Amino acid sequence: MARIILQPSGKSIACAAGDTVLTALEKAGYALPNNCRAGACGECKVRVLRGKFDQGMVLDMALKPAERRQGYGLMCMAKPLSEELAIEWGTADARPKLFRPRDRALFVITDKRSLTPRVTELRLRPVGQPIRYWPGQYITLGDEEAGIAAKAYSISNASHPDGELVLHIARADGGATSNWIHDRLHVGQRLRISGAFGTFIGDPSVDTPVLCLAAGTGLAPILALAEAALRRGFSKPVTIFHSVKTAQDIYNEGVMAWWKSRHANFDLLITLTQPDPTASSLPYLRGRIPDLLPQQFPDLSAHTIFAAGNPGFVEACVTQAKALGAAAERIHTEGFFSQQQPVLPDADQLLPA
Ligand code: FES
């Protein structure tokens, strides 16, 4: 079994045969940022200081040849070849952050409703122990026996004592899982859920203004992060900037308006990206978020940024945020890749249902 050494902390963790470095880190409770888990986004890039590894198949745009020469690798696909692999990651204390995910935990659908013509909300309550998670994480939902592949869906609420999970599921064209959720699932039905996974999480030590950028159902993890921040009395400005195609795609506006009434530090902006004659008198912005950022937030040098949505949206937001002065280490992203499939830990690493 290989060992991964985290520098500068010097902590050492085990990496089982066949595991990627990312999986090994997550099994040990470390939150290495990642999005696609498929070598496509570059989010899990770190510098390897010592040792050999098999990088596997990754896209050049995610790991440029020059970066390879400098020793960088994508940890979602990297597997150690040497007994020790030292990577540059984490702070001096490198503390564990994630909860152990649960495997196929039993839940009941307590409510199901349409939020927009293409988005359904599911409310689920656990039959046994609640799933523990950080706001911003996701679960996986599917039905193996019925041939419905498990897909990742962000949890849209901060954790509640009753363990309720709220999911916002967009109907994907030709998407078997989302169509199954929209058309077949019903209130009272039992479901198996695994999770929570992902590292799109708020850092409790953040003490800067926060700007949350969301496209479509990218709003889900943003809502969980904002709810948790407001609930714990975060005092710096928090703004949600939500992009939808037309007015009929807006959802959760009422709850966010309520947050705005209750919290002087919370603000909400909504923009429509397509012409919508029905909304001509409504007070929404028009256009794409990356194009509107310079006018709305000319200086992002002091902000922490969270961006969630399709990869093109997230990438454009990151580029623009950096151009407006945002520091790379304070930009957190969650891109919904069509090929994204969570790599589940081995069965013995999951808490039983
Ligand atoms: S490239 Fe590793 S998470 Fe996307």
Mean model confidence by pLDDT: 89
Strand content: 25-35%
Bound ligands, each once: FE2/S2 (inorganic) cluster
Query: Remind me, CATH topology of the largest domain?
Result: Rossmann fold
Distance between the termini: 28 Å
Form type: globular
Number of helices: 7
Low-confidence stretches: 338-344
The CATH architecture category of the largest domain equals 3-Layer(aba) Sandwich
Number of domains: 3
Radius of gyration: 20 Å
Helical content class: 10-25%
Question: Could you walk me through the main structural features you see in this protein, from its secondary elements to its overall organization?
Answer:
- Helix 6 (289-296) packs parallel to helix 7 (311-323).
- The protein is 18% helix and 32% strand.
- It has helices spanning 21-27, 65-69, 176-183, 219-231, 253-262, 289-296, 311-323; strands spanning 2-7, 11-15, 45-50, 53-54, 72-74, 79-80, 84-88, 102-116, 119-126, 138-143, 148-154, 165-170, 190-197, 210-215, 238-244, 266-272, 285-286, 304-309, 331-335.
- The chain has a six-stranded antiparallel β-sheet with strand order 11-10-13-8-9-12, with helices on one face. A six-stranded parallel β-sheet has the order 17-16-15-14-18-19, with helices on both faces. A five-stranded mixed β-sheet has the order 2-1-7-3-5.
- Mean pLDDT is 89; it is low at 338-344.
- By secondary structure, it is of the alpha/beta class.
- It is built from seven helices and 19 strands.
- The chain folds into three domains: 2-88, Roll (Ubiquitin-like (UB roll)); 102-199, Beta Barrel (Elongation Factor Tu (Ef-tu), domain 3); 210-335, Nucleotide-binding domain of ferredoxin-NADP reductase (FNR) module (Rossmann fold, 3-Layer(aba) Sandwich).
- The two termini are 28 Å apart.
- The longest helix is centred in the middle third of the chain and has 13 residues, at 219-231.
- The protein is globular.
- The structure holds FE2/S2 (inorganic) cluster (FES).
- FE2/S2 (inorganic) cluster (FES) binds next to loops.
